[in-house]
Structure of Ribosomal RNA small subunit methyltransferase I:
Amino acid sequence: MTEDMTEETRYTAYTGDTGTLVLAGTPIGDLADAPPRLAAELAGADIVAAEDTRRLRRLGQALGVQPGGRVVSYFEGNETVRTGELIKELVRGARVLLVTDAGMPSVSDPGYRLVAAAVERGVRVTAIPGPSAVLTALALSGLPVDRFCFEGFPPRKAGERAARLREVAAEQRTLVYFESPHRVAATLAAMAEAFGPGRRAAVCRELTKTYEEVRRGPLADLARWAEQGVRGEITVVVEGAPAPGPAEVGPDELARRVAAREEAGERRKEAIAQVAKEAGLPKREVFDAVVAAKSG
């Protein structure tokens, strides 16, 4: 395996039309979770672009396969330059397999630039689905999963992190974050301040690995637990904000709303019923407000 394209091999003539970019999901822990199609793609791709070529080598050994084409590095430091090189190969007809250290390329990993450039050039892009830390953590969290949003890694700086968390404090969907082990205690404390200490959450670490652990509880409790030190790959799932209750509407406002509907032609009974429904209040309370306004 070689880790870079040479000038002599960079512009190999491929057969066929524009090539295909294949995004491959890789195990997030247990190598036995590798998708069955991954071995075939490793063997058949013209180019394998890997975030870490050493990890790719270990994955290939676990699958019992050697990459059949060239292996090149594709990571944050060379992503911009390498994207242009790979696009040239794709346009010439190459089949390029993109793998990152764990999970799906582009999801908090290199890949977005290459996908965007491939789409712009009309190159076919497909994927080999694989294990997902986001979905695995959601499923294990015990929190609602019918609606959720993925927030990636919080900002490293405390001020920026606090501001970002405040932006989503009222978000009703379940929130999913990635975090490094040496910052997770500070992040959980910031979440407790932004979302409230009682907001439920789950800290999922080392998913699918030998020492997998899911710690559930209020954010304040989890922040105190994390102060003792946490190791491994971390995914944090946080309960969404509760739906707001009916807005407080005073008697004068209730009477005004009923009067406005009456002026528009509604009968008083129907106007009271509709105002009560909109305000989330009993009809009797709206009726009393109208009577009090007439008496006043």
